[in-house]
Structure formats: C-alpha cells, structure tokens
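Dear all,

This email documents one entry for the complex benchmark we are building for the journal club exercise. For each entry we list the sequence lines for every component of the assembly. Then comes the predicted three-dimensional structure of the complex as a token string, followed by one or two observations. Please use this as the template for your own entries, and keep the labels exactly as they appear.
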Amino acid sequence: MTPPLQPASLGELTEAVRSAPRVLATGAGTKLRLSAVDAVKISLARLTGVTEYEPSEFTITALAGTPVREIAATLAQRGQFLPFDPLLVEAGATLGGTVASGLSGPGRLRFGGLRDFILGVRFVDGAGRLLRAGGKVVKNAAGFDLPKFFVGSLGRFGVLAEITFKVFPRPASTLTLQLPVAGAEAAAQLIIEASGARWEPAAVDLLTGGKAVCLRLAGPASALLEMSREIFARWPGAALSDTDAETIWSGLREFRWAYADGLLAKVALTPAAWPALERGLGLLDGARAHLSAGGSQAFISLPSAAPSGPLDESLRGLGLVAVTLRGNAPLWLGARPRSKIALAVKEALDPERRFPGLDD
Amino acid sequence: MSATVLQRLASLLPPERLLSQPEQLGAYESDGLTAYRVRPLAIAIPETTDEVIALVRHCHAERLAFVARGSGTSLSGGSLPVAGGIVIALNRLNRILRLDPAARVAVVEAGVVNAQVSLEAAPYGLRYAPDPSSQPICTIGGNVAFNAGGAHCLKYGMTSNHVLGIKAVLATGEVAEWGGVSRENIGPDWCGLFTGSEGLFGIALEITLQLLPKAECFHTVLAGYRTLEQAGDAVSAVIASGLLPGAIEIMDALALQAAQAAVHAEYPPGCEAVLIVELEGPREVVAAERARLDEIIAASRPIEARPARDAEERAAIWKGRKSAFSAVGRLSPDFIVQDGVVPRRRLGEALRRIHQMAAEAGIRCGNVFHAGDGNLHPLILFDGREAGALPRAEALAGRILRMCVEMGGSITGEHGVGVEKRDYLALMFNAEEMDCLKRVRAAFDPLGIANPGKMFPGAESPGPPPGGLHPLEKAGRLSRV
C-alpha cells in the first residue's frame, strides 16, 4: 500500500490530489471505516493551525488538519465554544474529519449540529482546484451552500482544506441532572418531554445501558438550580458534581462505552423510534447503544466478532439508515436512499472520479 | 409558437388555473424588487404536488423556462418571471401536512405562509424560529429557495438551519427526497445544498421544518442614542459580555422617521439611532441575565433606555422595527432595500462610508440592520419618475456591495442574489469558483430552465444594465417602474 501523502501547504495539497488517479483525505484516523477504501491517502496532519480568529465576530477559521482539541482550547481562552459538542476530540479528531463525517455530540440539541455552525470552506475539487465556498461572516446567502453539503459527505466530493465556523459564548455554568428511567418507552417519553420543555436543556442523552437519562442545563448558576428543582419534581433524580458530569459527558463524546475494536455506527432517528430500535438491538449479542441529542441520533456498537448483517436487517426493517464509523462492516447500513442527482453532483465536483464514491 | 406552447400546457391544468390574458399576467410581472417587470407567457396554478411535478416534467420535455413563485416578496427579484417562460404559482399548496409535537417538526407544502407555521405550532408550546419581516405573507417554499433570515439569525440561524427534510422536483423531473423528521442526517447534507439555491435546482414541494420550544420569557430593551457610533459601541459591549441575545437590531434616523410615520412608533426624542436588544429563554435565565444587560446598556450612555414592561410594549417595539422597510415608502416614491454583510467590528466604519457615499451621490439613504450579525439593510430612496434616478440608486447600491466584500463580508445576508445582485456574485468568487457553482447548477438543471437569469450574470433574463435600456426594454418586453 502506498504510504499516505503528507502535503505541508495548500499548494502541495492540490498537487497531492492531482498526483494519483484515486485519492482520499484522512485525518487522525479516529473513524477508520470512513477511509477504509482503496485509494492513495492524503494525510492532512501537516495542514494545521488557526488562520483567523475574531472573538468579537463569533467566527474562527482553521486549516482542516487542525485537531479540534486545539480549536476548543483557543476558543476557551476567550470564553467561547463550539456548542454542538464535537466528538472524539480527546482522541485527536481533526476539524476536517469532523466535518466530513458530519458528527455532532449531545450539545447539538440546543442550538443545532455541526451543519448549523459551518460558514465557509476552502476545498480542493476533483480537478485539483482550490476553491472557496460560503463565507467568513456569520450570515451569508451568496452562492450555493456547498459548505453544508460537505458535512457528512465523507471526503467523496472534495478535500476540505480550511473551514470557518460560527462559535458562541460559553454559558456561565452548566448543571447535569441524572434521571433514572425504567425501560425504553419511559426513556423516550422523558426525552421527548424534556427536549421540548421550557428549560431549553443543552443536552438530553440516554446513557448506555438505558437506565438513566442525563439532562444538561446551561446558563447562570442561580437559574439552573431553580430549574433543577422543578425538573426533579417531575422526574426524581440527582444533580451531578461538575467532575462527575464531565466524566459522563466526555465518556459519551469519546465513545468510551463502545467496543474499541468493534463496530461503531451512527443512526439518525427520533426519540419515538427508540423503543423499536432498542428491541431490535436486544436481539443482537453484545449490542450497546447511546441515544443522544434529544433522541435525534443513536450510536451503536457491536463486538468485533459480531456480524453486521443482522443490524443491517434490523435497521432496514425500521426504515432507518446508519453510517459505519469503525469496524469491519459496510459503510452504510439500513435503508440508504439513492438518487440520480447524487451521481450528477459527483460528476460536477469530481468529473474524473478521483475520490471514491459514496458506494465504494 | 407561444399559442401551441399554451395549448400543450392546457392539457395539464384546467383553464381557470392556467392564466395567459394580459390583465391576469400583470399581477405576476414583478415581485418585491419592484423596479423590474417581465411579462411571462402564462401563470400555472397547481393545487397538488403531482401537478407541480407534471408541470416541471412538461417544462423539461419542452425546454420551457419556469419560475416558482410563492407570495412574490423577494427583494432580490428572485421570482421575476422569464419572458416566454411560465410562472408556477404555489400559493394553493398551502397545507400543513403534519405537525408532530413529539418530534417537534412540521411537514408543510411549499405555499404555506411562514407565520402560519408558528401559529399552528403555538398550542403545543412550539414555534418556527426564522422570522423574515415579510413573515405574515411570505411562503416557506420561497424561504427555502432564498434561505430567508430574519431578526434572530445570530442565535438561531437562517431558514437552512431549520430545514430537516425536503421533497423536491428537480429541473430534470427527478423527484428527490432528502432528510426527514430526525434532526440528524446520514450522508451529505442535501437539504443544506438545496436551501438557498434560489430556485435554480427545482421546486421544493414538501418541507420538514424543525420547531423549537416557544421562548417562555423575553426582556426587550429599546435604547436611543445621539449617534450611530454610540449604538454600535453598545452592540460591541453586549457581544463582549458573553450574553447571547435573541436579537440585536439598529435603526437609524431615517428609518425611525419612517416607522413613526407608518405605525406611530414612538422613539426617544433627539436620537439618531435606536438599538433593540432582546434576551429570551426560561424565566429564571432571563431574570438572571436581564440585570447584566441593563447595566451594559446603561453604561453605553443612551439618551433613554426603555425596557418593554409587558408583551404589548414588546410587540410595539417589533412592529416599529418590522414595518421600517415598507414604511420608507411613505418618505419616498421608490426605494431599494439593500442587503449586505460586514464583519460586525467594522459596522461603524461601514455606516460612515455609506453615509459618505450617499451624500456624494446626493441620494437619501437610511439604514436598518441586524447589528448582531453585521447584516446591513441600506434603504436607498429615489424617485423613479426622475430621469436617471434608478441607475444612480443602483450605482450607489453597487458601491455599498463592493464595500461589503472589501471589508470581508458578503453581498447578501438573507435576500439572496436573485436578479438584483447577479452582477456582483463574481466579487466574492473567482472564475474557477463561479465555474464550480455553475457546474453544480448544471447537475441539477442541465437545460437551464429553472429560474434562469438569477444568481449568475448572463443574458438569460434581464439584469440591471450598466446604462441605457436593456434590449428587452427596447423591445417593450421588459419595463421598470
């Protein structure tokens, strides 16, 4: 296998794209299945660094190989953050990989996911041209919104080189409440009610094992304490210390609950669909799951020896679709719709098919 | 030729829903960009999504240009008809197909009016966040096509941030369905790409919108300042404080005058600028944050700060603000509502330069803007009956847009490129980038029949000529007011 190319400048990146008939960008390798396809790899590891940061503008621009950890640290110094809780940050996930995989964490509940914070990109198309799309200001409606299209497109339509994000002021404090639940129906009901409630929680997640929901409030400390009393009156539970809360949230963000060498997949759903999915997973040996972001996504993990076929069937039966992030399984599980337009847009951005397709 | 085109169209719709008489076409010749008029061949008024699909497939088979239209409120000429083409008026596709309070989503047809969604969602304690000023009449289909904004974009984003699923008929006749009721998505974000494509990809038929919990509590402050700079400094102070207001708006003297004339809004005497800041959220949070905001506003030395004491006072503040655009009509026979974005920290500088440019051109120009996200709306006043007045006003608009781009901003924050700004898109994107956008457009619409003449400079439909009459004007097929 050809060793990965390691461009150290945007010029070298465009050359790297043109250097082989089939190439695919890679980041830190935290979601290996996404790039497990036959192609010369272009590592973005040397294209790192924040290129523009204006705290007063609520925007930050960085090269795609920059670890999200660095971005988060830079933002934290000025009291700002990415509210969608990027995943696998401690594991080293890069900004480009995070966008290409389209992954958001528990915090996507309150203000939206990664797609809602991406403002602009520079990317290299299949012809090796470095192009700009979107903008660098928080509001912009000029031209087609290709930056959003790249979210979740797995590097199959272009190589992300530089990305601009909208950022928000970090809330004054957070308070996490752990609320025990009995069964998937009860969990779904609690999640539905809490996600739409007047408290505007930042996150509502069902912990792996399905025994408790963690609800995170964000805002001025005095307000959170008052609201928590009302929440406990509705659903008995306990407030967690900041340290305990961080252990739980970081465990979820880093997939510490998942099989390290097994399958890890993301499913998009609604909380109402959870009980049926949970029943399906119950039939699979060793299956674990985390229902996240107000029940809008579930992450599923299987032991390395488990076949993915039954999961695929189960998802199909429920009309759900998943993308495999790690493990030895097809890239897509369940019922992924296909369309002619996907091929036409692929042709427009990558006429020579230099990048693998979504079905490769 | 047009007679046979009409005859073939007549097989798709009953005669009362296919308009082609001159007096019927008149109402559709123009949209919110009233300076332009084009008479289309016919207006098709479908009542079902299947009829829209059949119309688009027919247009594809006949290479007939079509322009989808909702309520025709586009300020960039986004629904300006194409001569020889048809307008597909979607107002009768006005059903809210599903409102799911558990999933907090609404599935609506393209012709549903924006404000209607929040109205229907209200009994469930939910709302649809995007609130363009035209929300009492503009449609979701138009909002999706032009990625409409509003006063709450800094905190809640634009239309695009609230679209979870789209069923659309593409210009090729293909019916695509993307996304769905989940807030999360698997694979490329097609809804994100389609939203804001200005009708160049096809027509959205059914849209799944995310609904948010209704904000429980508001704290709305109106503050009057002696100068625009002071109001701008107050915005900077609010932003630096770590608060995240739902809205931060500024109106200048001319806009205030217009709002006073139109809806009898009352503003502190002697102020040259009014700032509106609104906090929203759970009552406990707003209670904790309001003192902080009041302190910041007091420290910014306004002539007067007026917190709204109840819902009625809050509504009055917003009524004045949202009426400002149309209210300018009372001050001038004609005006252009411009839409540009600058980095927020350069707002003061941008406003000074706009005033200077307007003074040099001898043109009255007011400003209403979403200060929180640097989105300017210069209101350029002119009298269309005066020879050369429109080109002069457009020239000023052009200089303002160039300034926005030079400052690192955008030629449009929320109105879209449309016809109005198509000659300016290339200020933001180089030739290769423009080529990329065109290739993407061609992927969706290889024949160039979906809303041609919008977004890209070219000869497909009338655009602002640099001077003199457009060939279509000379031919009597296009006129301006």
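Observations: The radius of gyration of chain A is 20 Å. Chain A is about 30% helix and 25% strand.
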